[in-house]
Amino acid sequence: MIKKIFGTFGTRVMNAICGLVTLWFASHYLGAEAWGIGGTVLVDVSLLLVGVELLAGSGLIYFTPRKSYRTLMKISYLWTALVVAFYALIIKLATFIPESMTSIFLKFTGEGTELIPQGYKTITLTLVFIYSLHNFNLTTLLGKERVGTNNILFIIQFMTQMCSMLLYIFAFDIRDERAFIYSLLTGYTVGYLCGLTQIWRYVFDKSQKQSLNEFWETIKDMFRFGSIIQLSTLVTLLNRRLSFFIIKGFWGNAQVGVYNSASQVSEAPKLIGQSIAMVQFSKISNLTDNKLAANITVQLFKTAVSLTALCIFVLCIIPTSVYAWLFTENFAGMRSVMIALAPGVVFMSANMVFSHYFSGVDMPKHNLYGAIVGFAVTIPSLYLLTPPFGMIGAGISMSLTNLATILYQWFVFKKTNNISAKELLITKSDIITLKSNLLENFKIF
Asked: What secondary structure letter does DSSP report for 183?
């Protein structure tokens, strides 16, 4: 398990580096406002994906070993098409809303009901559709325990995104948000096509046939499993989207660009928690001993939180002048926002470990409840802290949101497994065990 974690971690490190390179070129050649629009589109894609992943999300990892692969593919593709078509219909109907009913939106955004940036509705829906198909390949490969192949496809995706953005900037002289948005479409498409070559044998495996009754039973099981998880994801994404919404309403797209950049850099250490949680979910889902699952979670919690805290501390002590030099003076305010976001990044890493524990032991409702607790903190804190303190206030709000979520999850985890807070402290044996695993799997020393 340790080897898989570090393999996944290495992939996420490469993704973070590519993200920083992308940010550097965006800050120098696209500008803060264009980057803010691009970041808004990306967040909107993430938000819209929640509906698709109700059936075609992380639950596929659980169902791939248990259901016909072709059945899962048919359900996922059909559901994706229906959801995207529904989004398109809603967006079209929104254009008929009387102008008098949009005053509340005008007050905060200046764009009425245009939650998706003007002119980017079609490409946003296209991004949702292509990424959903690409994500089917990624998640089902994890379900087949092909973690290495999953990582390679992910590398192809983000490397293609970065390289294609540079191509759009320097070869096609596109110097606005389109360079970033087009690069997303290119990366998702290439990743999807490469993934098809890896899943083809499962699609044509004739031994995995299911009857019509089994087809509908599979849909029922997938909906039951995915609904709670996706509701919690939706609430979590709304937490983040609301901060963009408020900042844009008060200060415009340029400040959203700075805040988005600070979020990207400060959240880079969360890849540690992501790497751990991905392997943890696969492991715990196949266990029947909940006590062992809890013990594994405690050990992974310690690793995720300590390494994330160390990384975010290093990012926060880098002088403001360095960020201004790297990303131009327009982004000099990043460091202050990052410091405000730092505690929340550590809490986010802990949240990932606990969330995947609850999903792995069939208790996903506590992820939803935790997200709702966080959302209850987000709304008042954003409106109280953002007007007087700007982006820093929004950063503090996000940290408070993540703290509230993790406190709820810890309370339930502690009560369920009779574990004390003392057991979360890092001991000498933990350090020895980690070093031993490194020696065994990577021969570092």
From this structure: H
